[in-house]
Specification:
mainly beta; 224 residues; five-stranded antiparallel sheet; 5% helix; single chain; 1 helix
């Protein structure tokens, strides 16, 4: 079977500890008059340290094989295990009904964007988005991942405007009418070289690795 990229985590993946955060490449300078200047020196990218539950060697070898397929910067889909579901609902969000009718599958439609907001349609009536929820949508051949930074409630028609971080990248602009994932939102990441560890031995042990977001918009078919 041909491996396709970006890859998903191995089947049955479970994590005991994940440090999923937005990188900060800003610098600060204090002027003689006491004013403070802050400048961002690079893209704000998501990065994470992943630690799985302890598992047997038979399960760890699945991760070893997975990591080998990601050598030389090949990409995979990553998500924050703490933010798989919207905080207000948990897994029961999939029991909701869209305002226009039909079951809610955890997705919405991108209606408009600004640098600081995304407007969604196709949500359940009165859908509650909480600060800290995540969402993702296609961008520049890859995937944009953002965090909701203020609580918001959808209208009776299932529309809502959400304040998000990091800023929405507008060049190129996201495609309006794209599908937005609110359940298990993902970004595309690459392993940081030298960080993957799946210790040998017959005792259950954890697999650990570090990764950083890739927003290059590369043609992932090139990795096959």
């Amino acid at each position: 079977m041909t491996i396709s990229y970006p890859r998903s985590f191995p089947v049955g993946a479970g994590f005991i500890n994940v440090d999923f955060k937005l990188g900060d490449l800003s610098v600060q300078n204090t002027l003689e008059n006491g004013a403070i200047q802050v400048m961002e020196m690079g893209e704000a990218l998501w990065s994470s340290t992943f630690t799985t539950f302890e598992m047997t060697m038979a399960d760890r070898q699945r991760w070893q094989a997975w990591a080998l397929t990601l050598r030389l910067g090949k990409p995979f889909y990553a998500y924050d295990p703490e933010k798989v579901y919207p905080a207000a609902y948990g897994a029961s969000v999939l029991n909701l009904t869209r305002a226009g009718g039909g079951g809610f599958d955890g997705t919405a439609t991108l209606a408009a964007v600004t640098a600081k907001t995304v407007q969604l349609t196709g949500l359940p009536n009165g859908y509650k988005a909480s600060a800290g929820d995540m969402l993702s949508f296609p961008w520049n051949g890859g995937t944009a991942l953002h965090m909701v930074v203020e609580d918001a409630t959808a209208s009776g028609g299932g529309g809502v405007t959400l304040a998000v971080a990091p800023p929405v990248r507008l060049s190129p602009s996201p495609s309006i009418s794209s599908t937005v994932r609110l359940v298990q939102p993902v970004c595309i990441m690459k392993l940081k070289p030298g960080t993957f560890s799946a210790p040998a031995g017959f005792q259950p042990q954890s697999v650990t690795f570090e990764a950083v977001q890739d927003i290059t918009g590369a043609s992932y078919a090139d990795y096959v």
